[in-house]
Design a protein that fits this description.
This is ATP-grasp domain-containing protein. It holds the Pfam family PylC-like_N. One of its GO terms (molecular function) is metal ion binding. Keywords: ATP-binding, Ligase, Nucleotide-binding. It is built from eleven helices and 13 strands. The protein has about 325 residues and is an alpha+beta fold. The protein has three domains: about 100 residues, Rossmann fold (3-Layer(aba) Sandwich), CATH 3.40.50.20; about 130 residues, ATP-grasp fold, B domain (D-amino Acid Aminotransferase, Chain A, domain 1, 2-Layer Sandwich), CATH 3.30.470.20; about 50 residues, Dna Ligase, domain 1. The protein has a six-stranded antiparallel beta sheet. A four-stranded parallel beta sheet has the order 3-2-1-4, with helices on both faces. It has a three-stranded antiparallel beta sheet with strand order 6-5-7, covered by helices on one side. Helix 6 packs across helix 7.
């Protein structure tokens, strides 16, 4: 890729919060000497992404056998240079095909399959974290908890779908019969946080940004506030960097209890759902830093000081267009 050039960027699963934010952000914020042309793809044509991007393709769902061919056709037709995987199901799809896409001239930053599977599944996530010395809630597998309240959640899921608070044995019996694969943990009373991270091609931690999850809607944050990084969080980040092979954008959630003890609860091998705009506004432009890394440019965020008290509020806004 030469300077003063146009980068053709493909954003799959573009209809969600992260996809539409990436389109809007990259349409107005570029690195020096480059112009971006944004190509969006989604299985649903009724999405704002169709009107925000330079080009839009309706494609089969990611689990559909025809999805792979549809992506390759877009890459060839649009001369795609960079792909930004967005959704949880994007990560394994593009991780498995990274070598093939790179042969086609495409750059992407994504965790490998082994790392994704290890961190996406709550069972292996908790076992991994305990092994490397990172605190997690007391974990019972699929067995009933020793005391209530407790939490039951799918072993592998995106967002907060089917995460339930259990008050008694009756709740446990009901929800354990509804979920095919699940984990049970202690309920931790405290404040919830998300930490947005970016790792480079050498699995080096480039940046981290902690923010409080003030209000959620359907698993995505709608109010989030910049948080200060505690010393114990720095220790957790060092352990993650030292023991795990991570590449690209990831995020994890933790709860700080009343004694300010931190417990890691979830890990996502993708952009955070909903809260990425706050991290970007705080000075950590993860999408453009990723582009610099993919272009083999140096990145340095050591001088960035996020504004204290920076808070993001998300709200709906109507938008109208004529469609056939």
């Amino acid at each position: 890729m030469e300077a003063n050039a146009t980068l053709n960027i493909l954003i799959p699963s573009a209809g969600g919060l992260s996809g539409t934010f990436l389109i809007r952000h990259l349409s107005h914020q570029t690195i020096e000497n480059y112009h971006y042309r944004i190509v969006a793809a989604d299985s649903n044509r009724h999405t704002a992404a169709r009107h925000l991007a330079s080009a839009f393709y309706q494609v089969p769902a990611c689990h559909d056998p025809d999805y792979e061919q549809a992506i390759y056709e877009i890459v060839l037709k649009e001369n795609i240079d960079i792909i930004f995987p967005v959704a949880s199901y994007d990560t394994p799809f593009f991780a498995q095909r990274k070598a093939q896409l790179e042969q086609m001239g495409v750059q992407l930053l994504v965790c490998d399959m082994g790392t994704h599977e290890r961190l996406h599944n709550k069972k292996t996530l908790y076992e991994t974290m305990r092994t490397i010395g990172i605190p997690v809630p007391r974990y019972y597998g699929t067995h009933p908890p020793l005391s209530y309240p407790a939490i039951i959640k799918p072993a592998a899921s995106s967002g907060s779908r089917n995460v339930c608070k259990l008050e008694n044995d009756a709740d446990y019996r009901y929800w354990s019969s509804k979920l095919e694969e699940y984990v049970v943990t202690d309920f931790i009373e405290g404040t919830e946080f998300t930490v947005d991270c970016l790792f480079d091609k050498s699995n080096r931690l480039v940046l981290s940004n902690a923010r409080e999850r003030v209000k959620m809607n359907g698993g995505a944050v709608v109010i989030t506030r910049q948080a200060e990084s505690a010393a114990v969080l720095t220790s957790i980040l060092h352990k993650i960097e030292a023991h795990l092979k991570i590449e690209g954008p990831v995020n994890f959630q933790y709860i700080a209890d009343r004694e300010n003890r931190l417990f890691l609860t979830d890990f996502n091998t993708r952009f955070a759902s909903g809260g990425l705009p706050l991290t970007v506004a705080a000075g950590y432009d993860i999408p453009n830093l990723m582009i610099r890394i993919m272009l083999n440019q140096p990145v340095d965020v050591s001088n960035i000081v996020p504004p204290k008290g920076l808070t993001m509020y998300r709200y709906y806004q109507e938008w109208f267009t004529g469609e056939p």
